[in-house]
Design a protein that fits this description.
Elements: H1 7-15, E1 20-31, E2 36-41, E3 47-48, E4 51-53, H2 60-72, E5 82-87, H3 90-93, E6 94-96, E7 102-115, E8 126-132, H4 143-158, E9 162-163
Parallel strand pairs: 1-7, 5-9
Antiparallel strand pairs: 1-4, 2-3, 2-8, 5-7, 6-7
């Protein structure tokens, strides 16, 4: 689902650009060679992970799978996604979009490992998409994405769910 007609869009019709508390999900897709899927947003030019807000009646894993399909054309079983971290630190995850809309996002971060296939970017949201080695993330990178990648490295090293 694109932004127009979504739950957040409906809320914005009522509250304008006022800050919303917004649950959502992010997905780190790792190809079989370990490269990570990143996309460059059309609205701000930043590189980030596929991510988005939860819709009513949707779980975090369901939102992650839906956003992954919407933004990258990747079908994933929500049960195949592994939760690695949460990200809610207001210093990192309070966002202001180019149109002035503000959110404090609360994201559950998932990893989908060993994926192989073709991506199909959603053109209204994604300007460019590709796989990159985790040590060579393109700039400019979205700060929450940089943090999720750091949390993933901690998760991978320790096996412990990370909360930030």
């Amino acid at each position: 689902m694109g932004h127009v007609g979504s739950y957040v869009w409906e809320l914005r019709q009522k509250v304008g650009s006022r800050q919303l508390l917004l649950p959502g999900a992010q997905v780190l897709v790792l190809r079989t060679d370990g490269a990570a899927l990143l996309q460059r947003r059309t609205d701000n030019g930043l590189w980030e992970l596929p991510a988005g807000a939860c819709e009513p009646g949707q779980s975090f894993a369901g939102a992650a799978a839906a956003e992954l399909f919407e933004e990258a054309g990747i079908q994933a079983d929500p049960d195949g996604l592994v939760a690695l971290a949460s990200l809610s630190d207001p210093k990192l995850h309070q966002l202001e979009y180019p149109n002035g809309d503000r959110v404090h996002a609360f994201a559950l971060c998932f990893v989908l490992e060993g994926w192989d296939g073709t991506v199909t970017p959603e053109e209204s949201e994604v300007e460019e998409i590709g796989f990159f080695p985790l040590t060579q993330i393109p700039a400019p990178a979205h700060p929450p994405t940089v943090e999720v990648l750091r949390l993933f490295e901690l998760y991978r090293r320790t096996g412990v769910f990370q909360a930030r």
